[in-house]
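Exercise 7. Given the components listed, write out the predicted structure of the assembled complex. Treat all entries as one system.
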Amino acid sequence: MSKKIRLDRRKDIPPIAISLESTLSIKTGTWRYFSPLHKNKIPPCNHECPIGQDVRGFIELITKEKFGRALDLIRKDNPFAGVTGRVCYHPCESVCNREYFDGYVSIGALERAASDFGSDKKKKAIKDKKKKVAILGGGPAGLACAYHLRLMGYQVTVFEALPVLGGMLRIGIPDYRLPKNVLDKEISAIIDMGIEVRTDTRIGVDITMKELEKRYDAVFIATGAQLNKKLDIPGEELEKVVSGLKYLEDINLKRSVDVGEKAVIIGGGNTAFDSARSIVRAGSKATIIYRRTLDQMPAYIEEVEQGIEEEVEILYLTIPIKITENGNNRLDVECIKAELGKVDASGRRRPVPVSGSNFIIEADTVISAIGEDADLSYIPDKIKCRRGLICADENGVSSCVTIFAGGDIVEQPRTVAHAIGSGKKGALAIDRAFKKKIKETSQEELPVVEFESLNPDYFEEQKRTETPILTPLKRIRDNQEVKQGLKKDMAVKEALRCFSCGVCDHCENCLIFCPDLAVLKDVKGCKVLYDYCKGCGICMLECPRGVITMEKESAE
Amino acid sequence: MKKVIIGNHAVSYGVMLSRTQVIAAYPITPQTEVVEKLTELCSNNKKVKLLKVESEHSAMAACIGASMTGVRTFTATSSQGLALMHEVLHWAAGARLPIVMINVNRAMAAPWTLWADQNDSLSQRDTGWLQFYCESNQEVLDTIIQAFKISEEILLPSMVCLDGFFLSHTSEPVDIPLKKEVDAFLPKYKPKYQIDTDDPHAFGGVAGVDYYFEIRYQMQEAMEKGKSVIRKTGKDFKKVFGREYGLVEEYRCADAETILVTSGMIAGTLRVMVDEYRKKGKKIGMLKIRTFRPFPVEEVRRVLKKAKKVAVIDRNISFGHSGIFFQEVKAAMYNQDRSKRPPIFGFITGLGGRDVTPDIIYEIIDHTSLHSEPKSDIIWVGLKK
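Answer.
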């Protein structure tokens, strides 16, 4: 409290009305009911990423052309930036707040740019811990788990039934979507951390679970789902009726396969489309038959669109009922047309056959791709399973404390990102189990930023930088990667579209707009001087990215 | 260097030579060329900020804000624009901000007019601004440089007036001083009070019954001090530039029996007329009042007390009374010995830009010599019968 000043002599009175004392003595902060607080929130992309990547963070680094640091940041969570940059379906993009403004940010393309232009740093030597972990399955879930465990110093052995690592990434995804050299590079970077690999080792055949449990302190099961679902129609057993996965495996492992002039593919998922598009590239005709309609197809729309461009024929509302060999040494696929009936358990309208609409398609090969089941034959009884999958909690902990599971063998969406994410979570759960920590260290739950809390007045409209795509002619002829990467300058331009939702990027709007000069800048960024802040909230309104929140003053 | 330029451009050169830092102005006829030329002269000059504003009120408000931060500040206006500024004119003076502005004298509407008389600036008489009335383009340029110096010393704003079209749009040879000479004469403004974010104070807050009176007293004190500052500044200016200006200019007054009193560009016509009368042996002199505020009471008394008759020529009118300079001169003469109070004739002429020709001046001088004393406070000259 300042003392009262009284000026009785004329000569002491200043010629203008000016406060004799500095106004710093007027602590206007006492007028405040609400306090602005600079507090970073969770951007929706980060929140949605099944791997838990700092999406916004790596995009910010790309805006500064720091591709290497962006890649390092991705690799904190995900050793497969080149893979996910290409084949992840990018749930992050579907929640991007920029969609409500002028279209989502091409996050996938930026992730790929980070892996294209960022060079790997030499990893520091890892200090070995005593505990050993067996990883069953060398796919994305198993390798991600191995990567994270190894980062923490545990000794890891990966068991893989096939002669090569990569799992579905290698055998399930064709070259035109994911070139093998990209995959090889990322896998060898993981293995080079000092991970023991046993290929051609099938669990239950070459080694038993019992042995593994004896020799290792923990086991992470990530053997995926490779058993083709049965069509349950006559003729399924014929020699020229093959599974989609088998076909893709043969193609990807460069085994010779001949599907003849024309193949019929049964199913509407990614395996069906990957098979059909590979067949087109091998010079044959491909017809997909699917019993429902386009909007119910589980395949990614991008795959469907590109397949149609490549002249893959799609017959919707078509149910195969019988496959027979005909006199021309070809197959007759008898189908019946369907119409959509009531909604079934999957939430989709059930296809109902229309009687008398039978027709026959002739083909040289039939590929069945209606889904895959997990092989649980080697899983010991003590591990609880349900509906053909291992029961595990969200961290991959099974009913047995030393056994963990992830990837397609547990109940979760069958995507690359979910597989990698479950590998990471599994590794963290194993680490906690070793350290006898029961729970995750609880962190304050920060809110996810919604578009409404942003101030879009500060953003300029800027169309999305489209990823260059090869023409259908070119991509079929050369079997080259369909999606080309962004060039460096394109990537930076696209990264600059990021709103940086909920994370301060030091734009200083709060400092500029504060009518009381009660925001100061220091090395760490802007901060509020609570002695002078009246709590007017202008800083919150003018913050473009919803960083500032107004919190009610606690009554003292 | 001498250039033949219009009065408005003389203003612009004066402003630039004074190293003005912030200019906020809104164009109005007949002032527009001031702003146009300034825009041109400022275009590549990072040391000046020229603000485009949406009205004259905003122009003055912007000048007040800028001046409070301690920079040299200028604006230019005329007539209705000046009237719109009225509210903030009080503020600028009351906050003791040494803003300099030019007002190109233009008669007030209605009816609409663009031509000169002094009613616009004289209406602002009591706002606390210094007022200078110029006779030539040279005097305009010189007065701007001086006005900054005077204002910054006594902390009151200055209004420099020039007659619309008669000066603003008339080309005359003007000696444009050298930059370094002006710099030496008018150093950088060092404000006594200014906004400083490192030492924040409240400005222009409430001064209740305890202090307002004293603050007003100090304003009047500053005005009074202004007189000696103006005289000294005029003398200092002469030392560098060879031209001297005071509160008034006496022209052949020493032995004059009749003294004509006027202001602004009419003085230029009078000067020639006085010479003509002198050639005929008539003892006529002229007293040009250059500074209307502060009013040069001492000079007026000293010069006029020896005259037998005084004639004040006003290009303005205070409706319901008489010419404004006439009233001021009369008032200045009153509180002294009766012997020092010659009869004072008040002539009103040239309103709304009507030309004040030699014939008008003949008529004024004839009238003054024919009558022993004025029969009324207003004698209209050049009015249609």
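Discussion: The longest helix of chain A spans residues 416-434. The longest strand of chain A covers residues 331-343.
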